[in-house]
Design goal:
The complex is a heterodimer of chains A (about 325) and B (about 300). By secondary structure, chain A is of the alpha/beta class. Chain A is built from ten helices and twelve strands. In chain A, strand 1 and strand 2 form a beta hairpin. In chain A, helix 3 (about 100-110) packs parallel to helix 6 (about 150-160) and helix 6 packs parallel to helix 7 (about 180-195). Classes of the chains: A alpha/beta (about 325), B mainly alpha (about 300). The structure holds adenosine-5'-triphosphate (ATP), iron/sulfur cluster and magnesium ion. Chain B: Keywords: Cell membrane, Membrane, Transmembrane, Transmembrane helix, Transport.
């Protein structure tokens, strides 16, 4: 997948991004601000089609269906039913003028069509209690401004679940929330994923979050995936120097998040200023001559992909990669490339 | 709610007082003498002039004149016309309805057409249709209503003989004046609604609605429309004031009954009480309409409604 700005310098904001997601697993996308996480997430849902400034090319396969070949109405029909999304700003992601009840009803209709009133009510309340909202009656009657951020995010998740999707994309669902609320929302997402067996794509810039919930981790840097591996691999022996850098500055989950990465000097280049070769080379302690001229290739080992000329060798004896029980062993259901 | 209404009415009082003071002073500061006009028919002896001045109270110092006028006005008495000797209150109430009808017809037209055109333009933004609508709205805002009125009479009434050019009776005779009066307001409304729709389209919740799988139509007509039109309600209300004032001009173009007719005659004769009365009544109407608009806005916007309930 490649996403390019239509105006200005022709630099791809997302380039060569390719990965697959598995049913029942949580895949975390991590990376600094501006690395293309959100563009990738929106592109899967075809939401980038609504942004005239972006042009996305490549292939997106979902459940055997080529989303990239579908027209807009067909993709819209998948949204909310097969793929649902939860956004970073819960307060501004709900229509301020409509009650929670009517907005949830819209989502329920995506799968169930028009429901008789009594049935509808029961379902709405069940949805809300599913996401840990006990006083559903009151919340249904409320409008977004009457609810807290955490409450709004629970409502957003309820709306996403209403369509009984196979894939839930959550783009930094907890970033705008209090630390105490964050843990609750993450636990909720995890519980729902296990219960419903759907695939979850969780975008976060917080390695601590990824460590908690991820089965698979995609590390993005400057529009590219630099490492894509099972959570075990990534956290026990990261191969890409950037991943290692991210890990070394993980604060305790409860702690304050630093706004800059203390152990990686410098900052990520914007798509226009991306250096040739490996985009990370100006900041990389392991960079070699070839790093500044040649773009590293993605090493294609099942369950362990990284793009680096000089990867970190595992310091302890890892399990042989082939034996690692990863998602590749199962038949991939969802597939986003 | 009762508290809010009372507060808004109280806030309207200084506005109205200001209006009375300004109109009172302007009338007396511009050249022209009502008494001289009245006596132009015959010999104007100094005694006759002095007698009339005393009768109208014009021999009193200005502050005294103003206060007595204000005192009468508070009791609902706007004085007596110099020219006809009729009570101004009854002269105005006889002509009020056609003017209010015209202003509200134009307000309705500009709101409906403005919202329709604005949403359409935003939905097909940067297309040919959008360009056309934008040109129309700019031109419409720039054209004076009397000129629009004349053009309408020329084309619709004389060229195509579709609608009567002049007169006040019936719905048919309301159409052309209402259109002439509404065109600039439609221009303002269209541009506002278009801008609002585009702004709302960029909001996070619209992306979220797309992610829910709603069709573009539903998103535009159900969610974006409501969010974009709501702030325009206030402007629509504010426009009514301008439309009432504009009605006065348009009425004279179409030779319609109404306050415009009244005011035109009063100006030519320097009939102070009638002029003051008409201006004050229009001022009071504008204040009233604004209060109503505020209340309606509060009632339809849940955010404001609940913040008021919290007080
Ligand atoms: N609609 C758009 N038009 C043009 N450029 C865009 C658009 N959306 C995003 N970009 C650019 O794409 C790059 C990646 O943005 P993206 O929002 O995906 O980053 P991110 O990894 O989600 O960052 P964050 O952690 O801040 O959310 C940025 O340089 C951004 O400026
Ligand atoms: S390719 Fe070179 S510069 Fe890039 S991360 Fe690997 S070692 Fe560092
Ligand atoms: Mg983002």
């Amino acid at each position: 997948m490649r996403a390019q700005r239509r105006k200005g310098p022709a630099s791809a904001v997302v380039d060569g991004v390719s990965f697959s997601l598995n049913r029942g697993e949580t895949t975390c996308v991590v990376g600094e601000s501006g690395s293309g996480k959100s563009v990738t997430a929106r592109a899967i849902m075809g939401l980038t089609r609504l942004e005239p400034a972006l042009s996305v090319s490549g292939e997106i396969w979902f459940d055997g269906k080529p989303l990239h070949q579908m027209d807009n109405p067909s993709v819209a029909r998948l949204r909310g039913r097969d793929i649902a999304m939860v956004f970073q700003e819960p307060m501004s992601s709900l229509d301020p003028l409509f009650t929670v009840g009517s907005q949830l009803t819209e989502s329920l209709r995506r799968r169930h069509g028009k429901l008789p009133n009594q049935n509808l009510r029961t379902r709405l309340l069940a949805l809300l209690s599913d996401v840990g909202i006990p006083d559903g009656e009151r919340v249904l009657r409320s409008r977004p401004h009457e609810l807290s951020g955490g409450m709004c995010q629970r409502v957003m998740i309820a709306a996403a679940l209403a369509g009984e999707p196979d894939l839930l994309i959550a783009d930094e669902p907890t970033t705008a929330l209090d630390v105490t609320v964050q843990a609750g929302i993450l636990a909720l997402l995890e519980r729902i994923r296990t219960e419903r067996g759907m695939a979850v794509l969780l975008v976060t810039h917080d390695m601590g979050v990824a460590a908690e919930v991820a089965d698979q981790v995609l590390v993005m840097y400057s529009g590219r995936i630099v490492e894509n591996a099972s959570a075990d691999e990534v956290f026990e022996s990261p191969r890409h120097p950037y991943t290692a850098g991210l890990l070394s500055c993980v604060p305790a989950l409860e702690g304050e998040k630093p706004s800059v990465l203390p152990t990686i000097p410098g900052s990520m280049p914007s798509p226009e200023q991306r250096p040739p070769g490996c985009a990370f080379h100006p900041r990389c302690a392991r960079s070699a001559d070839r790093c500044s001229t040649e773009t590293p290739l993605q090493t294609q080992k099942p369950g362990l992909e990284y793009a680096c000329w000089n990867p970190i060798e595992p310091t302890f004896l890892p399990m042989p990669t082939a034996d690692v029980p990863t998602h590749t062993a199962q038949a991939p259901k969802e597939d986003a490339r | 709610m009762g508290y809010l209404i009372a507060r808004r009415i109280l806030a309207g009082i200084p506005t109205l007082l200001g209006v009375t003071l300004v109109v009172f002073l302007i009338l007396r500061l511009v050249p022209g003498d009502p008494v001289a006009g009245l006596l132009s028919g015959g010999p104007a002896t100094p005694e006759l002039v002095a007698g009339l001045r005393a009768q109208f109270g014009l021999d009193q110092p200005l502050p005294v004149q103003y206060l007595s006028f204000l005192g009468d006005a508070l009791q609902g008495d706007l004085g007596t016309s110099y020219a006809t000797g009729q009570s101004v209150t009854s002269m105005i109430s006889g002509q009020l309805l056609p003017t209010v009808q015209l202003a509200f017809a134009a307000a309705l037209l500009s709101t409906v057409a403005g919202i329709g055109l604005g949403v359409l333009a935003a939905a097909v933004r940067n297309s040919f249709t959008d360009g056309l609508i934008r040109v129309f709205s700019v031109l419409g805002t720039a054209m004076p209503t009397f000129w629009i009125g004349l053009m309408l009479i020329l084309v619709v009434s004389f060229q195509f003989r579709m609608l009567p050019a002049t007169g006040s009776d019936g719905f048919q005779r309301l159409i052309l004046p209402a259109v002439a009066l509404a065109v600039p307001a439609i221009g303002v409304m269209t541009r506002l609604v278009r801008a609002n729709v585009l702004e709302v389209l960029g909001e996070n919740f619209v992306t979220a609605l797309h992610a829910k799988g709603l069709s573009y139509r539903t998103i535009l007509l159900r969610h974006v429309l409501r969010n974009a039109v709501l702030p325009a309600v206030t402007v629509a209300g504010l426009q009514i004031g301008g439309l009432l004032a504009g009605a006065v001009v348009v009425e004279t173009v179409f030779a319609r009954q109404g306050l415009g007719n009244l005011i035109l005659q009063a100006i030519t004769r320097n009939d102070y009480p009638v002029l003051q009365g008409v201006v004050i009544v229009i001022g009071a109407l504008v204040v009233l309409v604004n209060i109503v608009v505020d209340l309606v806005y509060g009632a339809v916007d849940p955010r404001i409604r609940s913040s008021l309930a919290g007080r």
